[in-house]
Amino acid sequence: MPNLLKSRKAQFYIISVVGIVTILYAIGKSLTSYSIIDTSEVALRNDFFVFNNIVEKTLATLNASKDCEELKFNLEEFKLVTTKAFAPHFRIEYNYAIVSCTSTSATVNFNITLYSINSEIKTSFTKTINW
Fold first, then answer.
1. Where along the chain do its domains lie?
2. Whether the Cβ atoms of residue 55 and residue 112 lie closer than 8 Å to each other
3. Low-confidence ranges of the chain (pLDDT < 70)
4. 33-45 tens-digit pLDDT
5. Which of 99, 53, 52, 58 is nearest to 75 (CA)?
6. Which residues contact 61 (CB under 8 A, 6 or more apart)?
7. b/e per residue, 28-53, with b = 16+ CB within 10 A?
8. Could you give the CA distance from residue 34 to residue 43 in angstroms, rounded to a whole number?
9. How many CB atoms lie within 10 A of CB 62?
10. Structure confidence at residue 43 (pLDDT)
11. With DSSP H G I counted as helix, E B as strand and the rest as coil, what are the percentages for the chain, rounded to 5?
12. pLDDT value at position 34?
């Protein structure tokens, strides 16, 4: 009789441990969704990164041009690619005017504005390049 009683105590102990572990696991799983850090907001707020990238690539496009015809073509292509590439998330106004263009240099005025849900970022600058 004593062996039967010890056997039942051991079974109850094992069942209790399994039950407690299951309950703790369930509570942990339900709280996990509240404790995970949401980093998607940072990824969605990349307005300044996109804007600075557009300005940087504009300057690279200017430096890559070798004459007035190539400058006009490159700027128009860059404007089309930029406005279409970011169209789902941003609206970009990319305006430029070639003020002077000679066989040795060119001066270009830029007005670039990026609109998003959270912000409006704009800049105006003039760049002179020599080739």
1. 2-36, 45-130
2. yes
3. 1-7, 33-36, 38-45
4. 666 676 666 655 6
5. 58
6. 74, 75, 78
7. eeeeeeeeeeeeeeeeeeebeebbee
8. 20
9. 20
10. 57
11. 55, 25, 20
12. 66
